[in-house]
Amino acid sequence: MSGRTSRLCFLAASALAVAACTAAAIAECIGMSSMGSMPMPGGWHMSMIWMRMPTQTWPGAAASFLSMWLVMMAAMMLPSLLPVLRRYHRQIQHGDARHAGARTLLMAAGYFLVWAVLGALIYGMGIALATVAMRWPMLARIAPLAAGMIVLGAGALQFTRWKAHHLAGCRALPDCCQRLRANTAAVWRYGVQHGIRCCHCCAGLTAILLVAGVMDLRAMALVTAAITAERLAPAARPVAWLIGIAAMGAGIGLLAQAAWA
C-alpha cells in the first residue's frame, strides 16, 4: 500500500470513527433523557444515570454507565486525539507499514483505557453522592451552591500554571523514535501516558460536564468544542483563558441563582 493510499485510508477511518461515536453518543443521550430525572430538594433534578433500575444488578448498572461513558468520551476526545494518532501512523509507515494500523489502534486503546478507569471512579463517586443526597435532604439543598462553586473553580483552573503544563503536554505530538516505532509495549505505554496527561488537562472541563449533566447534549457539545479549541488552536493559552472566563461567568451565574432560589 502506498503512503498516499495509507493516509487516505487513515483519514477515512478517522472520519468514520468520529461519525459513528458521535451518532452513538447522541443516541445514548436521547435514551437517557427519555428516562427523566428525579426532583430533589433545592430545586434541582438528579439524573437517572446515578440510579439502578429495578431489573439491574449493580455490576450491570456500572457496565451500562461505562459503555455510555466510553462512547461519549470517544466522541468528545477523538477530534483532538487524531493529530497525535496521525503523526504516529505517518511516521511508522516508513519502517513498519504492515503494523501501522494495528499499533495506532493500540495507542488509542491505551489512551481510552485511562478514560475508562476515570469513568469507573466517577461512577462510584456519583453513586455515593446520589445516595447521600437522597438520604439527607439538607445536604441535597446545597447541591446547586456546590455546583456553582465547582464551575467557578474549574474556570479559575484554566489560568493556572498546572493547566498550562498539562495543556502543553497534550498539544505536543509524539516523538516517533525507533523505540516507539518498533516496541509494542512502548506504544501502549505512550497511549496510557497521553491519556493520563489528557485527563489532567481536562479535569476542570470534565467537572463542568458532570455538573451540567453527563449525558446532556448541549453540555457535551460545548465541552467538546472547548477541548478541541484549546488543543488545536495556534495559540493555546488565550483560548484556555477565554474558556476560563466563560466558565467563571457561568459559575457566578449558578451561585447567584442558588442564592436567590
Radius of gyration: 20 Å
Judged by helices, strands and strand pairing, the structural class is mainly alpha
What is the number of helices?
11
In total, the number of strands is: 2
Pattern of helices and strands: HEEHHHHHHHHHH
The quaternary state of the protein chains shown equals single chain
Uncertain stretches of 5 or more adjacent residues: none
Average pLDDT confidence is 87
Describe this structure in words.
The protein has one domain (3-260). The chain is 79% helix and 3% strand. The chain has helices at residues 3-33, 58-92, 100-135, 137-141, 143-157, 161-171, 178-182, 184-201, 203-212, 217-232, 236-260; strands spanning 37-40, 44-47. It has a two-stranded antiparallel ribbon. α1 runs antiparallel to α2, α5 packs antiparallel against α9 (203-212) and α10 packs antiparallel against α11. The longest helix has 36 residues, at 100-135.
List the helices and strands and how they pair.
Elements: H1 3-33, E1 37-40, E2 44-47, H2 58-92, H3 100-135, H4 137-141, H5 143-157, H6 161-171, H7 178-182, H8 184-201, H9 203-212, H10 217-232, H11 236-260
Antiparallel strand pairs: 1-2
Short recap of the structure:
With about 260 residues, this protein is mainly alpha-helical. It has one domain.
Characteristics:
single chain; 261 residues; mainly alpha; two-stranded antiparallel ribbon; globular
